[in-house]
Amino acid sequence: MFDALTDRLSSVFDRLSGKGVLSEKDVTEVMREIRVALLEADVALPVVRDFIAKATEAATGEAVIRSVRPADQVVKITYDGLVEMLGGDQEPEGLNLSLNPPTIIMMAGLQGSGKTTTAGKLALRLAKERKKVLLASLDTRRPAAMEQLAALAQQAGVESLPIVVGQAAPDIAKRAMSSARLQGYDVLILDTAGRTTLDEAMMSEAAEIARIARPHETLLVADALTGQDAVRTAKAFHERLPLTGLVLTRADGDGRGGAALSMRAVTGLPIKFLGVSEKIDGLDAFDAHRVAGRILGQGDVVALVEKAAQDLDAAKAEAMAKRLAKGQFDLDMMAEQLQQMKRMGGMEGIMGMLPGVQKMKKQIAESGITDKTVDRQAAIISSMTKAERRKPDILQASRKRRIAAGAGVEVAEINRLLKQHRQMADAFKMMSKGGGRGFAQVAQMLGGGGGAGGMDRLKALGGGKMPMPSQQEIEDMAAKLQQAGGPKLPGLGGGLPPGFNPFKK
C-alpha cells in the first residue's frame, strides 16, 4: 500500500537532503511536488489543499529557518501532517466492547467490498483475545452468503447462527440477539446484505437492523481499490447509519492509498482496521503514526515484531534458539525460517516494514530474491531426504540431479541454496562463540515471554511513534536492539556478522 506515493515522496526528500538552507522558493517547489504526489495517489482535493496549506505555513516558520537540518524538519512536518490526515495524535481506536455482553457489531457496506470475509477475520481476532464470538449472516439475497459465513466461522474457531431458510433479515437479527444473550456470548457480529450500488431498499433494511440491534459498533467495510468511490460510499452510509468506524479491505493491493488518506478527513470516522490479504488472519489494526511512517519510508518495525510474536511458535523458537546457540543450523531449520517468512507476509511484506528499504529497492530487485524464489527454495529442501537435510555435505552430483528433478529447478539453483545455507551456518557458528546470548532470548522476546513484551521493549527503544529516522538513527536503533537482546532470527537481518549478505547469489 502507498508504494507509488512512498517512491514519489522519497525522491522529493532525497533532493532536499543535500541543502543546508532552504529558501522560500525551495519550500514552494517541494510543496508543489507533494501536492502532485498526493493528487496522483487519489487523495481528495479538499484534503490535499488543507494539508498543503498547513504544511507550507509550518515549513516557512522559524523552526525550519533555525533548524540545523532544515530538510529533515520538512520531512517531520510532512510526517505530522500525514498523521493528522490519517486520524490525529490519539492512540489507535480499537473496538468498543460493552461491559455488559454481548457486544453487538454490525457490518455494513456494498456487495463485493469484503464484508463477510472481514466478519470472519474480526471473529478470529476477537477469539484470540479469548472472547466467545457468534457470527450471524443477515444476507438473504446473495447466493450462499450464509454458508460462506458459516465456513469462515469454522476456520476462525467460532460459532455461527444456524441457518433458517426463508427468514427475513430483521427476524434473523432478533434470533441472533436472543441466542447471544441466552448462550453467554461476549460478541455478536451481524453480517448485513449489500448491493452492487447504493439503493434505498438496502439502506432501509440496514437502518431497520440498526434500530433493532442497537449495535455498539457499526463498521462500514469499503474496498480501498475503489479510491474516492469508497469515500463517497462512506459519506452516503454515514447519513443513514450511526457508523462508528471504517474497515478498508484489499489495502495490500492499493498502490496509491488515496482512500485511506481521505477517509478520516472527509467522513470524520476513524479507520479501525485494514484488510491486508485474503487469509483469515489478514486484518491489521490501523495506527496513523505507523502508516505515516511507512508512507515516508520509515517502515514499521513494531508491526514486524508483532507479526513475529503472533506467528512464532514459542516451543519451536526456544528449541531452535538452543540449537543455534550451539552453532547448529541444518536445512530443516532453514526451511522453518522460510515458512516463518511466508507466515509474516513473505519477502515483500517483511521488506515493507523495515526502515530505509525504499532506498534499497534497486539492490533488492537486482538480487533476484523474491517470494517465488523463497517458494522454490522451500520446494528444493522438501525434495531432499531427512539425511540430506541434516547433513548437506553428502549432496553430491547425482543427488543434486535427483533433487532438481523433484523440485522442478536447475542444479545451479540447488548450489546457490547450499551456498546461502553455508553462509548462514557459518554466521551462526561465529555468533555461538560469544555464548549465544541473543539466541537464548529469541523465545523470550517473541514467544515465551508473550508477544506484547517484545513490542513494548521495542517501543521503549523508539520503535513506535517517531518521525522518519536518518540512516545513522536506524543504525543506532539496531545497536540498541542488539544490546537489549533483541530478535536475531535469520531473515530479520539482526545479529549477522559484517559483510554477510543474504541476497548474494
Q: Can you walk through the features of this model?
A:
The protein is an alpha/beta fold and 505 residues long. The chain folds into 3 domains: 3-86, Four Helix Bundle (Hemerythrin (Met), subunit A) (Up-down Bundle); 103-290, P-loop containing nucleotide triphosphate hydrolases (Rossmann fold, 3-Layer(aba) Sandwich), CATH 3.40.50; 301-483, Signal recognition particle, SRP54 subunit, M-domain (434 Repressor (Amino-terminal Domain), Orthogonal Bundle). The chain contains 25 helices and 8 strands. The protein has helices spanning 3-16, 24-40, 45-59, 62-65, 70-86, 115-128, 145-156, 169-182, 200-213, 228-240, 258-267, 288-295, 301-311, 314-325, 331-343, 346-353, 361-367, 371-382, 386-390, 397-407, 411-432, 437-440, 442-448, 451-460, 471-483, and strands at residues 103-108, 133-137, 159-160, 187-191, 217-223, 245-249, 271-275, 283-285. Strands 3-2-4-1-5-6-7-8 form an 8-stranded mixed sheet, sandwiched between helices. Helix 10 (228-240) links the parallel strand 5 (217-223) and strand 6. Helix 1 runs antiparallel to helix 2 and helix 2 runs antiparallel to helix 3 (45-59). The longest helix has 22 residues, at 411-432. The radius of gyration is 25 Å and the shape is flat. Residues 435-471 and 480-505 have low confidence and may be disordered.
Largest sheet: 8 strands, mixed
Quaternary structure: single chain
| Count of the separate structural domains | 3
Average pLDDT rating? 75
Order of strands, widest sheet: 3-2-4-1-5-6-7-8
Structural class estimated from helices and strands: alpha/beta
